[in-house]
Amino acid sequence: MKRASFIGLAGLLLAGFVHAAIDTYEFADESQRERFGLLTKELRCPKCQNQDIADSNSPIAADLRKQIHEQLQQGKSDADIVDYMVARYGDFVRYKPPLEGRTALLWFGPAALLLGGLLTITVIVVRRRRVDARPQDALLSADEQARLSALMTKDPLDKNAP
Amino acid sequence: MRRALLLIPLAIFLVVAVFLYRGLFLNPTEQPSALIDKPFPAFSLPSVDGQSTLTEAVFKGKPSLVNVWATWCPTCREEHAMLNKLAEQGVTIHGINYKDDTAAAQRWLAQYGNPYGLDVSDVEGSLGLDLGVYGAPETFLVDRNGIIRHKYVGEINERVWREQLAPLWTQLSEEGGQ
């Protein structure tokens, strides 16, 4: 008795963690179930700022899951379903934005920044090497070298030193 | 030349700072509707009073405000008085009763007044889906040719009407038909 209620309690506790939103949908086959999973992960809930429609509990997300399920049953392709959603909710619902003029910065920006950074580092490294390759005495005159040696050999704790 | 290079980090900082500063004042819940300048989606649904069947053709002829509302939506309740006032001023307002209990909707209109010329009953939310509705209240400005020209999400109050919607409404009212 005790054990049964413990298992029941554990089951109740775990249920909350398995998935935020639980509906029961039946699919014709395993690949359809997989496509449903991918589509609901790729589409963003229009009401909630940053949740896909698979995870959201909002009524609109439930409606959209139902809509996707229906359209999968009707044999619509993934592209058809995404187009259907974009026609109603705009590009906002896509976690994967289309590649076009106004999204070019979004797609290529990170790569451009990385290239810029690499280029900067390369230029700095090459310049430093050139400086290191110069003969040492060209950097300091004989007088300067003598002052430097004096400073270096001075005892820093000796307060009476000039 | 070397001096100029030293200014690059400052320039990058300034550009980023300007963008981030702008970001402070953007409303992330504001999404442009995908239906702007598109015809009102086709539908055939009963009216809330159950007297007639309405289609998208009823929104043609003169400009109107199409307001998506429900009795379960607290903001709609707050907005209702403003809609009544606008209807009194002669603004044509139609309603879409979205995913609601029709009997509750009828009681609500009897109790708080009915600003809607026509009121579509969208119990299943199918028209709402076609309109890209994600939270009531939402209000569409539809021109005399039945084309959606603007969408406002949220409560219409005096300020929103005066600053955002009234100028568009005047513009739509002055436009000629086809």
TrEMBL record, chain A:
TM helices/strands, residue ranges: 104-126
UniProt feature coiled coil, ranges: none
The UniProt record lists the keyword rRNA-binding: no
Record's keyword terms, sorted: Cytochrome c-type biogenesis, Heme, Iron, Membrane, Metal-binding, Signal, Transmembrane, Transmembrane helix
InterPro entries: C-type_cytochrome_biogenesis, CcmH/CycL/Ccl2/NrfF_N, CcmH/CycL/NrfF/Ccl2_sf
CcmH/CycL/Ccl2/NrfF N-terminal domain boundaries: 10-152
Family membership: Belongs to the CcmH/CycL/Ccl2/NrfF family.
Function per UniProt: Possible subunit of a heme lyase.
Protein name: Cytochrome c-type biogenesis protein
Lineage of the organism: Bacteria, Pseudomonadati, Pseudomonadota, Gammaproteobacteria, Pseudomonadales
TrEMBL record, chain B:
Record keywords, A-Z: Cytochrome c-type biogenesis, Disulfide bond, Redox-active center
CDD domains noted in UniProt: TlpA_like_DsbE
Topology within the bilayer: Single-pass membrane protein
Name the record gives this protein: Cytochrome c biogenesis protein CcmG, thiol:disulfide interchange protein DsbE
GO cellular component: outer membrane-bounded periplasmic space; plasma membrane
Database matches in InterPro entries: Periplasmic_diS_OxRdtase_DsbE (IPR004799), Redoxin (IPR013740), Thioredoxin-like_sf (IPR036249), Thioredoxin_CS (IPR017937), Thioredoxin_domain (IPR013766), Thioredoxin_ResA/DsbE_sf (IPR050553)
Chief place where the protein resides: membrane
Molecular function (Gene Ontology), one example: disulfide oxidoreductase activity
GO terms of biological process kind: cytochrome complex assembly
SUPFAM superfamilies, per database record: Thioredoxin-like
Record family assignment: Belongs to the thioredoxin family. DsbE subfamily.
Domain of life: Bacteria
Segments forming domain Thioredoxin: 34-170
Keyword check for Disulfide bond: yes
A Pfam family: Redoxin
Location(s), subcellular: Cell inner membrane
Keyword set includes Disulfide bond: yes
